[in-house]
Each structure stands twice: as structure tokens, then as C-alpha cells.
Amino acid sequence: MSKGKPVRRRFDESTTTADLRKYMAPFADRLGYKFNTDDEFVEEVLASEIEILDATGDVFCPCRVRTGDPKEDAKIVCPCIPFYRDQFAGLKKCWCGLFILKEVEDGLELLGVIEEPTGDIDVPVFRVADLPDGQIRHVKVGKHDIAVARVGDEFFALSNVCRHAFAPLAEGFMDGYYVMCPWHGWRYDVRDGSTDHPGANVKTHDITVVADEVRVRISLGR
Amino acid sequence: MSVMLYALSTCPYCRMTRKYLEENDVDFDLLEVDLLEGDERTAAIAKVKEISGGSSFPVIVIDDETIVGFNKKRIKELLGL
Ligand code: SF4
Ligand code: FES
Q1: Domain span at residue B65?
Q2: Residues A66/A76, Cβ–Cβ less than 8 Å
Q3: ipTM value
Q4: I need a labelling partner for A50 at 20 to 30 A (CA). Which of A13, A39, A184, B43 fits?
Q5: How far is CA A76 from the centre of its chain?
Q6: Where are the alpha helices (DSSP H) in A63-122?
Q7: Pairwise CB contact (< 8 Å): B13 & A97
Q8: CA quadruple A65, A68, A71, A73: dihedral positive or negative?
Q9: pLDDT band, residue A112 (cuts 50/70/90)
Q10: Which ligand is nearest to the CA of A161?
Q11: Closest in B33, B70, B71 to A65, CB measured
């Protein structure tokens, strides 16, 4: 399988579903998810993951197929939520239904739900405490590269891509409500994406805080 | 009517789909892609990607219609159950 490089093994033959739960729960929590409320179903999915772990050396998704391309396959190691934030937030669960959004009360009801919603979706990106005041960071939501900035207790989301030469704005410098591009210093207002360079404003996204989670609104087109 | 179920042996929704079809006496062909090896496996993955646009399972093909995931409602509709 892996040529030369040693596989980084988090788990081994003795790993149990309880170990997986313990390891995955805090990770999912940071991303805005919890285990499905249907315990039997969770056990079933995790038991499948253990089977896959024994056969392959990692906990690949039981509901997606490994292509053999390591880059592609890295996106289906459980929990895979960061790679499919928009799709999963739309479904309110991960593809397999192992994880559901924290506010979902009955995970069983979602089990047969597969229709992907269209329209505006609020996608959890991180927790309030994960971004200190005066900082900005990059998040990938589906195909969108977004910079999320915090000023006091306000959060703002704008495109991460500078309109000048496409530098990542999240690596820039914050000054009040402004972010300065790391490459040549164009200034953008994080509140509305505006800059004083004509025609070079960047797109912004609505942002909400639900409990202690920051959520960025994107629209899923179809 | 032809019904083809592309599935993974490890996938809970695939099992549910299979059970559902069996319970409703639907005649269907089943291909468990993860149990294939070598060229057969590569070909099956390519085929599923072609019809479903991805590598998520189950994929159910009912005549010319493709359903990705255990979408009971659509399966029911297409089978006239
Ligand atoms: S879809 Fe769910 S079960 Fe599958 S890898 Fe992603 S998080 Fe894990
Ligand atoms: S790339 Fe941003 S100012 Fe040049």
C-alpha cells in the first residue's frame, strides 16, 4: 500500500469501538458535530470502521470507496467532516450518518435523508474560543476559501483571496476592521469586503454565532 | 425493469437498501465494489464514478435513473411501490 513511508498508526489490532468514540468525539465537537443519537447505529458504523482498520491500517469511511490515490483517500479517513463541511451541514449529518449537527435531537430521523438541500446553509467552522480577538484565519468550506476575522465579539467572513495577485488574506495583518494583504498591503474592510482599489472588492459571507459555534453562510447551488 | 445496486460490504446504508429491496421482492443485481480486486475493482470504481459523479455509496440504478444514497422516497417512486 504505502511505499516506503511508514503508516502513522493511531490505532492497532486491539482498538475497540469505545476507543474510536473517545478519540473522535472531541474532534467532531470542535467541528460542530456529535455522534448520532441512535447508539445502535453508531456501534454498527464503528464496527465497520474497525473491520476496515484491520484490513487497511486506517479508519476509512465505510460508505465511500478507496480509489488507491493517497491524496483522494486521505479525504475519506473518519471523521472526514472538514473536507465536506458544506454538504454535511446541508444534510445536517455526515454522509454515513455517524455524526450529526449538535442541534439535531433525533439522529434516527435523519438516517434515510439523502436529498441535498439547496439554498443558504449555515456551516459550522469553529468555536468562538478558537479565534482570539483581532485575528483572522482561513477556513475551507466546500470550494470556497474564506477568511474569518474577529473584532471584539464580532465575526466577519470574506473571500480569502486578494484581488491583486491572489494572496491569502488570512495570512495578512489585522488593524481594527481592516485586514492588510500579506503580499503588497492592499487593505480590505472585513465588514463589507471593500477596498480603495477600484473594482477589487471581495465577496463577503453572512456569519452567525449559534451557542459557541461560528457559522458561515454559503449558498449551495444546483 | 432493471435494478442494479452498487454497494460496499461495510456500509450500513447499503445494507438497509439491500434489505429494503429484498423485503419488497424486487429483483436486483448486486455488486459489492470493495470485495472486488485488481482490474475488476478499478473498473467498478470508474463505472460508479461515471454514473454517480462520485465514490459514495450506495448507488442504485433503476432503468436509466441513478440514486445516490438510501433515498427511500425516490426508490419507492421509481419502483412504483
Ligand atoms: S462520512 Fe461520516 S462515517 Fe464516513 S468518514 Fe465521514 S465522518 Fe466518518
Ligand atoms: S496580492 Fe494582495 S496586495 Fe498584492
Answers
A1: 3-79
A2: yes
A3: 0.88
A4: B43
A5: 13
A6: 70-73, 85-91
A7: yes
A8: positive
A9: low
A10: 2
A11: B33
Selection from A85, A190, A76, A91 nearest residue A140 by Cα: A85
Which residues are near ligand 1 (CB < 6 Å)? A 45, 61, 63, 76, 78-81, 94-96, 98-99
Alpha carbon of B70: minimum distance to chain A alpha carbons (Å) = 6
Question: What CATH number does residue B37 fall under?
Answer: 3.40.30.10
Q: How far is the CA of A65 from the centre of ligand 2 (A)?
A: 40
**Interface check B69 vs A, CB under 8 A:** yes
3-class SS of residue A137 = strand
Residue of A nearest to B72 (CA): A112
Superfamily classification of domain A17-117: Ferredoxin thioredoxin reductase catalytic beta subunit (3.90.460.10)
Q: What pLDDT score was predicted for residue A115?
A: 67
Region of residue A147 (phi > 0: left; psi between -120 and 50: alpha; otherwise: beta): beta
**E-strand stretches of chain A:** 33-35, 99-101, 119-127, 136-141, 144-151, 154-159, 173-175, 178-180, 187-189, 204-205, 207-210, 213-220
Mutate one of B13, B18, B31, B73 to test the A interface: name it (highest A CB count within 10 A).
B13
CATH architecture of A124-220: 3-layer Sandwich (2.102)
What cell does A147 get? Answer: 477568511
User: What is the C-alpha separation between A107 and A87, in angstroms, rounded?
Assistant: 17
Q: Cβ of A145: how many Cβ atoms within 10 Å?
A: 15
What phi-psi label fits residue A127: left (phi over 0), alpha (psi between -120 and 50 degrees) or beta?
A: beta
| Structure confidence by residue, pLDDT tens digits, B22-49 | 999 999 999 999 999 999 999 999 999 9
Mean pLDDT of chain A: 89
